[in-house]
Each structure stands twice: as C-alpha cells, then as structure tokens.
C-alpha cells in the first residue's frame, strides 16, 4: 500500500533548457551563497509545487508534489499527483506523520517519518522537505573535515527559468568517489552522512542498509566523499531561492529538482496543518 508513496522534497527540470549568459561582474560567489543561505534560513512559511526525478536502484522515478510548510515549529503538508497526502506537525501524533495512501483500504495511517516505509524509494525524508538540505550542502556540516567540495561552488552566470531571471551556482568536483569508512564506535547512518556531507540514501543503497540503521564499530562501509560530482543550482534573482537543483555523481544523474509557484513568508492559517482541514482526505 505504501510502496506507491513518494514524498518529494525537491523536483526536476532539464538543465539543457537553461541558456546561460555571462555572469554579473558585480556579484561574487560569496555574495550569492550568503544571500541564498540567508533566504533559506529566514523562511517562515513556504508554498510551492515540486517536480522531481530521482535515481532509485538504477532507474529513475518522477513525481509532482504540492507542498506547504511552516517553520519554528516545523509543519508540512504534501499531496502528490497520485492523491497521496502527508501531514507532519512537530509535537503531534507521537512524532509520526499522518499518511493517506489514496488506495485500498483508503485509511489514514501513522508512520515514522524516518522509518523504512516512508523512506522507501526516495532520497529525502519529510523532515527535509522544501529546501531542508540545501543550506547545509553549501556550507558543509560541522562534522565534515574536508570542505573542498563546498569550496568548489562558483557563480557561473545567469539564465531564465520558468520565465524568471536566475543566477547559476555550480560545483564541479571530479574528486567524487566512494571511500572505505570503519566507525571507531557504533554510529548511525545519519551521523556518517553528516560526517561526509553525502546524504543518507547512497550509503543505505550501496551497503544494503535500512533507514534508521546503526553501524557497529569496525564494519567497513563504502561512503561517498561528497554530495556529488557536479551540482547546479538555479537561484531566482528576486526570491533568492532555488528554482532548479541538479546533482550528478559517478553514475550520472542522481537527482534533479524544480520548484514552481513559490510563495515565501506569506501567512498560512493554522487550520491548514490539521487533519480535518477542508479538502484533505486524512
């Protein structure tokens, strides 16, 4: 029943449709990264539509999702093109998300947002919805020792996406590879991903681990040394928020995302983050 569920954080657009123009000499890489990071960190609410293409076990899966979010405390409601709905509100439902699968027996279930069912066939969790991973991708986690990947980002010119002027932020990291890592003590996959700045999904996939798994001391894992070989982000010049994100790794396209109809920092009534809001099937 839940196998059809795809919770999507960011969505895809073919970057070939973006024709780059020369960079604005007045804008520096440091300024663009600072503005992008600040805009993400200062979000109070967000509404958007999302298209995504993610490589899952060697094949690509696509989906469209409508999303609304509020922060501090974190709340998110998602509905995808299959009619599957998800509602997560910090401090409610014993920490679980409400999920309406829009399939037999058409009953809302409560699921751990970090558990195997909700993480199956997707790169990111509901807790990372919206731009949850982007700011950290740019600055690197506090646990990461080698920050050469983060330093590889460069302002690479301007383009137009969905009719909107956008800056291009690009990282080329040919050093990307899988390395062997043996924990000195028991660690979670999340903490290892934080250490390498690579995201959890490829660690789980490459090593046959389930979401939420712990890794005993001394077990050898194959872990990516960065998030990707190439990352391209198209940043809306007015909103200073991502419109397109594309990540390539050693196998080619890893994930590609597009955001549209973005409305940031406009009030969202509290009722829209409740199960009984009009129009929801939760």
From TrEMBL:
Record key words, sorted: Signal
Top-rank taxon: Bacteria
Regions that span the bilayer: none
Secretion signal, residue range per the UniProt entry: 1-19
CDD domains: LysM
Residue ranges occupied by any LysM domain in the UniProt entry: 187-224
One Pfam family hit: LysM
Protein name: LysM domain-containing protein
Lineage of the species this protein comes from: Bacteria, Pseudomonadati, Bacteroidota, Cytophagia, Cytophagales
């Amino acid at each position: 029943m839940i196998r059809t569920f795809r919770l999507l954080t960011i969505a895809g657009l073919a970057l070939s449709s973006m024709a780059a123009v020369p960079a604005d000499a007045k804008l520096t890489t440091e300024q663009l990264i600072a503005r992008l990071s600040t805009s993400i960190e200062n979000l109070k609410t967000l509404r958007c539509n999302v298209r995504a293409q993610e490589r899952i076990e060697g094949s690509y899966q696509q989906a469209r999702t409508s999303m609304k979010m509020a922060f501090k405390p974190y709340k998110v409601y998602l509905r995808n093109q299959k009619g599957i709905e998800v509602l997560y509100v910090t401090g409610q439902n014993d920490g679980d998300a409400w999920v309406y699968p829009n399939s037999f027996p058409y009953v809302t279930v409560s699921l751990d947002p970090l558990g195997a069912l909700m993480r199956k066939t997707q790169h990111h969790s509901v807790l990372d919805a919206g731009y949850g991973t982007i700011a950290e991708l740019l600055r690197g986690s506090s646990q990461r020792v080698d920050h050469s990947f983060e330093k590889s980002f460069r302002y690479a010119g301007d383009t137009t996406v969905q009719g909107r002027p956008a800056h291009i932020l690009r990282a080329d990291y040919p050093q990307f590879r899988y390395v062997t890592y043996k924990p000195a003590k028991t660690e979670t996959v999340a903490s290892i991903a934080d250490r390498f700045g690579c995201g959890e999904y490829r660690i789980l996939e490459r090593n046959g681990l389930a979401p939420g798994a712990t890794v005993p001391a001394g077990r050898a894992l194959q872990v990516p040394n960065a998030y990707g070989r190439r990352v391209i982000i198209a940043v809306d010049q007015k909103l200073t928020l991502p419109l397109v994100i594309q990540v390539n790794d050693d196998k080619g396209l890893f994930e590609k995302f597009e955001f549209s109809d973005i409305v940031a920092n406009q009030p969202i009534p509290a009722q829209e983050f409740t199960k009984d809001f009009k129009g929801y099937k939760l």
